[in-house]
Give the backbone structure.
Amino acid sequence: MNVNTLLQLLQSSIAFGTIIMFGAVGEIITEKSGNLNLGIPGVMYMGAIASLIGVFFYEKNVENPIPIVCVIIAILCAFLAAALGGLLFSFLTITLRANQNVTGLTLTIFGSGVANFFGGMLNGFAGGVGQIRVETTSKAFMAKLPFLSDLGIVGKAIFSYGWLVYVAIAIAILAQWYMNKTRSGLNLRAVGENPATADAAGINVTVYRYLATCIGTGIAGLGGLYYVMDYTKGTWANDGTMENLGWLAVALVIFAIWRPKNAIWGAYLFGLLFWVYLYIPGLSRKTLELFNMLPYVVTIIVLIFTSLRKKRENQPPNGLGLAYFREDR
Amino acid sequence: MNNDLAVLLKDITKTFGKKVVANKDVTLGIKKGEILSLLGENGSGKTTLMNMLAGIYYPDSGHIFVDVNDSGLNEVSISSPKDAYALGIGMIHQHFKLVDVFTAVENVALGLDKSIAFNKKQIAQDIKAICDKYGFKVDPNKKVYNMSVSEKQTLEIVKALYRGANILILDEPTAVLTPQETDMLFAVMRNMKEDGKSIIIITHKLNEVLEISDRVSILRKGEYVGTVDTKEASVEILTEMMVGQKVTLEIDRKEPQNTKPRLIVSNLTCVNKYGVKALDDVSFIANSGEILGIAGISGSGQKELLEAIAGLQETASGSSIKYVTPENETDIVQLIGKNALQIKNLGVALSFVPEDRLGMGLVGSMGMSDNMMLRSYRKGFVFTERKGPKNLANKVKDELEVVTPSITTPVRKLSGGNVQKVLVGREIAAAPTVLMTAYAVRGLDVNTSYTIYNLLNEQKEKGVAVIYVGEDLDVLLALADRILVLCDGKLNGIVDARTTTKEEIGLLMTHLREEEKIDG
């Protein structure tokens, strides 16, 4: 294996790692509030298709689309559409106290259905070719740092990505800081650990759960945005990859033991494990499936270790998956 | 101490669901700078009343005033714990409201919205200042899950004080403490009182009431009975106010016929998860053809006692529960060290109606028929035998007049009384020789309660040894033949239900006899 193939592996790992990271950091924020949202793949789909629709109509109706406007429209559409999924989830599980697992899975199915429905419709608009392409927006998202990415191997390894890659890292660091250093972050963790205690301390459990879930899904939606704008270069093609990445994000939350900073390197590791089969010689179609399950295997191993060590800080939030009602007796 | 009131509760009423009245027209005042004891039996509504002051519950009707003095009243509405803190009211709940994975500092900082970033050092210093002032000991950086019960309680009090609480409510604070820890708690309570804080202590331990408080207010069955100055109170006066006048019930109680020892319990000791003895060296005999009532403040070991007999509770070494087989009285079976299934396989016909009907007794989402099957699911080869349970369900439905659309309707949809009928019906149908019931009529209306009493009496007349754990003393006096009183996990006396008085039982429930011997 030479340097170039290694570089390729690294680049594709970081690309997929970024999508997983957005999903995982969003889900960590959600889970820290006590909501277990299995709808992450669904909201990623919703974020992806909403951003595509938004910029498609903008690019179609304006003669000379301005890149910065494209970017703003795409981000807003992706974030809001995904957050809308989160709002739906919150309404069902917090206000109506529906079962979180069932609601989350439903959201995943719903999101992928909505996205594929509108995706097919969009491709219909494109006419003969059968595939739309939002070129200006995609270019704006794929813009690289001009000089650094030319700096040989190192420059390519670190700086040759669209800027959303760095946004993902920034959000993860920000989330880590928020949870551990701010009062509001402390309150959020308390809501997920022990809602009754948080409530007695004067924290509005409902507001925290709604906000954490909506913001968390919004961030996850940016993963979908990165997928369509950068990875597939502004087109819609569904082969189920986004759903796989969404589930990996949910697994990564456990792998990262609910800490955003661990999600950074964990996401790249998952990305690497996702692609590594391409670079191992002599794999047949059957054996490569074994490699595809690697991320899940390491998640199970982490689960076994954290359960065995029983360190309280490494356990899931105590109130995860449970609805809260003050006057329950 | 002056006569200005820190808080006045006026005509407070709170109900849960349609039937359960937790508080009815309660009026209660707390003076500034006093320690007030709130005394009452279980279910007398003490905690519910205080929860309304702390913003956990909201009253159905009534008014709450703060800072009541000659110049006027100041009505407030407390709809959340945040409102309560804003008024300087802090409650230390019986089940601590602390986040286990947080340090003391983080728990104290919780929910306070001051700055974005929080200064852990500053809070640690503030905690230390509070500790020095009142004589607490708290390690600011210790995680809660590493703390002892007493440390957690101290942290709760510090947390309330840090939020500027001037009125502190302590819900049974001594229930989980050792005598030494209790003395320390009382010392800091006196320090806080010196500092002008008002303290309400919810308790049912009379000696503590007399030791710590300035005044005592008594609740009974959700209603306010009265308030006395501790100086003028005595154990006898308080007991009488707590248990009230005797109410005669029309329960048809026959004299026990040809009673024989059925269960011989000796030196039974159980240790709970905190390492405290929930049951301490309890010995008694339950006879066939007799109802043995068990009285005690809740949490005195009743649950452990029944579960130990049923094989659901670990017991300390030296404990012994012997079952005398009805057919052959020389055949004696030791039940200790066997689980419920092993006990059943030995041919011991034990029936247990647990306190938690839908949690331990029945499966809420299954119908009557399937619930009947829980006792016979091992019957049948490969496939379950359904006909028997179905017939039994129909029989129970008809005989006990269970109101249900059909025997397949999930039992959680039935009313509390009907759920209890299903459970009791099933347990009695198993033809037990020992029938244990825990709070069998809790939450039931009068008619259903009488149905249950009659069923228990029928069983007694059939020669079953019935053990009835109850909370209503009037019922215990009218239903049981003998009453065993537990106090703090110890057996504090067995009395004849026909000759004893409510006061005698009330006293046994709240006052360990050994202590009396030392006092006098």
In short: Residues 266 and 283 of chain B are 4 Å apart (CA to CA).
